[in-house]
Design goal:
mainly alpha
């Protein structure tokens, strides 16, 4: 039996456990947020250095578009596969230690990339990078949910998620500029080393108790059986949100990997200029959209239970229209304006979806639900989008025949599909939140 739910609203306040909604986060929790923000920034900087130097790699080692795309796939495929077992560990072991070990691993893998001289070596190192980064995201989401009140969860996730565009900019800009002036190997050395410092900091950081922010400390200690929590897919909100993420990630992975190359080929920009411009688009558009999405979802939540899925849905549909408009842009300035808007719209989904997953599952499996979303959304979304687009580009004309321009039309279609799926899932959110609370109350 599910608690009675008014249309479009959460259950009555009496059905919710007491929270720390009005409490000011402790100094330890604010410090933890700062460290996790820094790590998240490096996470994306390390990840997106490769696309920035892809044209240099292609010449240096002799790679075609398909091989370049496969290097993006190597990272994302292993990232997706290893996220779920590492998320299960994060629900059982100290999360600061899991994050610290993962950061150290991916930082070393990034630096070692500078020593590679063949496609196979690059593929192997990018796969190792995926293992390191997979340990970070589920554990960090879980800690942030425990460190800050639920009423502000989406905006906290938004400020943490703002590290994405900052990191992408650093990866694109530093990779492009350093690669242009000092070679692509130097770019990987520069972005790889700082992570070791942050790994040491998070290893020693305070870790909040599971369920602390919602008064669910006892419930957070109970085992949930399935170590990998595939049963979470039976929650409609989770399954619809992940399905939307699959298509959204296809867009983000494809555009993120190929945008610097597209700018170089279509608008004849240098590697450095393409990297800086691509990074700036992510900082301005992605940063504004990420933060705005979190605040908007939290603002609408008291009046609309599905706010944390509705905001992503509308943003994704609108972004598909904008992406298509950008591909038709008659000039670089027009392209920059429309793609800044597209970046903001598609980024509206990031923070609300992270908060949504935490809202509808019990504290004991919150790292696993994030890991599950990573597994499915990356495995079927962006793990193969760089190589799919690269292969399509080669078949449609390649580097000299405008093949990439045609291949990128997959992006607006996928974005609109993602938005429609999210809209269909909005009707389940209130009941799923109520069902989770009732289940915990019955077990207690």
């Amino acid at each position: 039996m599910v608690l009675p739910v008014e249309a479009g609203r959460y259950p009555a306040a009496a059905s919710e456990p007491p929270t720390a909604g009005a409490a000011k986060p402790s100094k330890d929790n604010r410090r933890l947020f700062g460290i996790l923000f820094g790590i998240n920034t490096l996470n994306y900087a390390d990840r997106w250095t490769l696309p920035a130097v892809a044209p240099l790699l292609a010449v240096s080692i002799g790679l075609n578009d398909t091989q370049l795309g496969l290097l993006g796939t190597a990272f994302l495929l292993i990232y997706a596969i290893t996220a779920l077992p590492l998320g299960a560990l994060a629900d059982r072991l100290p999360r600061t230690k899991i994050v610290g070990g993962g950061v150290a691993l991916w930082s070393v893998a990034t630096a070692v990339t500078a020593l590679c001289s063949t496609f196979n070596q690059l593929f192997a190192v990018r796969a190792l990078l995926g293992i390191g980064e997979a340990s970070y995201f589920p554990a960090s989401n879980s800690m942030l949910a425990d460190a800050f009140p639920r009423e502000r969860r989406a905006r906290v996730m938004a400020w943490w998620g703002a590290a994405l565009p900052v990191g992408v900019f650093l990866g694109y800009a530093s990779g492009g500029l350093i690669g242009q002036h000092f070679g692509w190997r130097a770019a990987f050395l520069v972005v790889g080393i700082p992570g070791l410092i942050l790994a040491a900091l998070v290893w020693r950081a305070h870790e909040p108790q599971r369920g602390e922010s919602e008064g669910l400390l006892a419930e957070a200690k109970r085992s949930t059986g399935d170590p990998f929590a595939f049963h979470l897919l039976r929650i409609p909100t989770v399954s619809f949100a992940i399905a939307a993420q699959v298509f959204a990630n296809f867009v983000l992975g494809g555009l993120g990997f190929w945008l610097p190359t597209y700018l170089g080929r279509h608008y004849h920009l240098s590697t450095g200029s393409a990297g800086v411009i691509a990074g700036a688009l992510f900082v301005v558009g992605g940063g504004c959209g990420t933060v705005a999405g979190g605040y908007l979802a939290d603002h609408l939540l008291p009046r609309q239970a599905a706010a944390r899925l509705l905001v992503p849905a509308l943003g994704l549909v609108a972004s598909g229209v904008a992406i298509g408009g950008g591909l038709l842009a008659p000039s670089l300035p027009f392209f920059l304006v429309i793609y800044t808007l597209a970046g903001a719209l598609i980024s509206l989904q990031s923070a609300p979806l992270s908060a949504l997953f935490q809202d509808v599952v019990a504290p004991a499996v919150r790292a696993r639900v994030i890991a599950l979303s990573l597994l499915i959304a990356h495995l079927f979304g962006d793990a193969f989008s760089p190589s799919v687009i690269g292969s399509a580009s080669d078949h449609l004309g390649g580097a000299t025949g405008g093949g990439l321009d045609r291949a990128l039309w997959l992006m607006p279609v996928a974005a609109i599909i993602a938005g429609v799926i999210a809209l269909l899932g909005c009707r389940y959110v209130a009941a799923d939140r109520a069902r989770m609370l009732e289940h915990l109350a019955q077990e207690g």
